[in-house]
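Hi U.,

Before I forget, here's the chain from the pilot set. I'm dumping it here mostly so it's searchable later in email.
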Amino acid sequence: MAIRFDSKSKTFTMHTSKSTYQIKIDDQNVLLHTYFGSRTDESDFSYRIVPDDHGFCSQPAENAWDRTYSLDFYPQEYSVHGNGDFRIKALRAGLSDGVPALDLRYDSHRITDGKYGLPGLPAFFAGKDDSVQTLEIILKDLYEEVYVSLLYGVFEEKNIITRAAIIENRGENPLKIRRAMSMELDFMDGEKELISFPGKHTGERQFDRRTLHHGITEISSTRGTSSHQQNPVVIICDKGTTESYGACCAISLLYSGSFQIQAEMDQFDSVRIVCGINDDEFRWILAKGESFATPETVISYTDNGFSDLTNGLQDAMWSNLIRSVWKNRKRPTLVNNWEATYFNFTGEKLLQIASQAAEIGLDMLVLDDGWFGKRDDDNSGLGDWGVNEKKLGCTLKELVDQVNRLGLKFGIWIEPEMISEDSDLYREHPEWAMVIPGRDPIRGRNQLILDLSRAEVIEYMKQAIDRLLSIAHIEYIKWDMNRSVDNVFSAANPHLSQGAVRHKYVLGLYDVMEHVVTNYPEILIEGCSGGGGRYDAGMLYYVPQIWCSDNTDAIERLRIHYGTSFGYPMSTVSAHVSVCPNHQNGRTTPFKTRGICAMQGSFGYELDLGKMTEEEMEEAREQIALYNKHYELFQRGDYYRLTSPMDNHDFTAWSYVLPDGSKASLSVVYTDLHANPKPLRVKWKGLVKDGVYDLDGKEYTGTALMQGGIVLPKPQCNYDSYMAVIERIK
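Structure:
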C-alpha cells in the first residue's frame, strides 16, 4: 500500500517509487510534517524535531508551561494565522467580523483507493493501470465549526504526490478567507537552492537558480494569469545538484490565474514553502454549509538529479494530466498565417498559402487574428465572432472546403475572453466588461476583459464558440488571451466581495474550456496568451499544447525551451519556423537551424511560404519528412538537456531518447564562433549501456556514446546547427 497509518505512533507514511512523505499527529493533535525525501522505511521521524526553549516563541494554551513546544519553529503540515506561528502561513481566515485567527487540530482521516477530484478545477487523474490512493486528513478549529480537509493523491509508480485543501464552514456566522494555499512543505534542514523560471513577453521561463537566505523569497503573479513574468513551477534542491546527481523536489501549481509561491528560511535555518492562489486582493466569504477548494499542486522528489526529476514529471503530466485524444495521435504539422500577413489577408491569399503548404507536405492551415467582425487591426471587433465574409471574399465554410480539397486541415484563432469597446457586443452589453465604476478603464492592447464571473457571460462565450464550430469543418483552435487582468470589478453584484472576482474569472474560464473539450473532443486546442503568458499545468488539463512564446527567433527560443523543459512535457511546446530577419529581434539564422530548434516541440511554420526560395522550400520538405519519420521520438522520447544555454555560450545541445533506448536524436545549435577553435564534444544520455548504435555508418556502444561522447562537426557559419538520429542495431 502506498499510504499507511500507524495508530501507535500516529504517523501517516506515503511512499512513491523514489520518495517517502510522512506526517504525524502529535499529543496536542497538531499535524506535524516529519519527513520528505528519499524512499525509506516507516520509522517515526518525529525524533528529528528538537524541542527547546527559544525566546519569543509562544506556546499554545494547553502547553503554556512547556516553553520547549512552540509552533513558531515546529515543522507543520498546514499552518494557520493566529496560533503562535510567525512564519508564512498556508491559511488565514476567520469570522467575517472578527480577527482572522484559527487553531486547526486533527479530527479524522480516511484512506481510499483511487484519486480524489476537484469540481471545476483541473486535477491529475488515475490512469487505467495506475495504482493510486487518496489520503484525506480532516482538521477542525478548536473554537469554531471550521473544517479543513487536506487531500493527498499518491501515484506510487509515477513518483508524484498531489495536494489540495478544502475549507468548509459549518458554523452559523460567515467565514472570511483571506489566504488559502494549496500546500505547505516544511524542510527542517536549510542549505537549499531555489530554481524558478522568470521572464517577460517574448522571453518566457528563463532559468534562475539562487541560494535561499534568511527571509522570504517570493515567486508570484498578480496579473490574473500565470504570466510571462513568472511561472507556477519551482524546484527546491540541495547545493551541488546537477542533471545527473543530487536531491531535488519539483512543485507545480495547477492554476492559470494569479499565483503565489513563497519560500522562507527562518531563524533556525528551516525552510518553509507555500504555494497557491495569490492572496493579493483575494477575499472569499463562506456562508454556513459552503466550502472552498484550493487548486491542486503536484510535488515530486528524487535524489538522482534534474533529468530524472523532470522526465518523471513530464511523463506524469502526459499520462495523468493531459486528457486530449491528441496526446496519443500524430498532431498535424501546420502553417499559421500571422507573421505572413498579420491582419492584411484575403481568402485568395490564404488559399495561396494553403496551396504552398500542401506542396511541401504540411497538414494544416491556421487562420489567425482578423477574420471576424470589424477587425483590420487590434483596436476593434473582439466579442463579435461573426465571420467577415467581405474580407474573405466568401463564407468561412467555402474557404474551409477549398482548403480541405487541397488535402489540408483547417484551424482558426479566437480570443473569446476579451472585448473591444468598438464592438457590437460592447455597445449592447457594456456591463459585461470589467471596469471600475466612475473611472476610465485600464486598457491593454486597447481591449477590455469580459467578466467571466458572470453566468450570462460564460453562456454567451459557449454559444459563440458553438456557432463558430457549427458553420465549417474546423479541426484546430488557437485560444489566445492578450492582456493582463487589472482593475478588476464585476458589475454583476457590486456588493459581492470583489476579492473573489479574480478566482471566479479563472473558474469561469475553466467552465468554458470544459464545455469545449467535452462537446468537441476531436478538436485540437492550442493554448496561448501572447505566447507563453498562460503556460501552466492547469491549462494542460484542457489543451495538449501551448504556443510557447511570441518570440520565434531560434536562438532566443533555446533558452525559452530550456526553462520550459524543467516543468512541462516538450510535446506541449508549440514551436514554428519563422522568416529571417526575425520579426521580434531582427536576427538572421540559417533555415536549417530554425527547423532543428522548432523540432523540440509541436512543429510548424509561421511565415509567408510564397516568399521562400526554392532552396528553402526543399529544406522545408526535408524538415517535415524528418519530423514525421521520427515523430514518436520527438513527442514521446525522454528529453535530456545536454548543455545549458545559460552557461555554455559555444553551443546548446539536447537529446530525445525513446524509453526503451531503441532510438535517440542529438540536436546542437552553435551560438558562438571562434578563430582557431578547440574541438567540441558532447556526451549522450539515456542510451542502453551494452547496446550498439549506428551513427553515420559506424558502430558505437551506448557506453561509449555516453562516457566518451562524440566530437561535433566544426560549424560552417554563424548559428550553424547539427542533428543526428541513431538507432540501436544490437
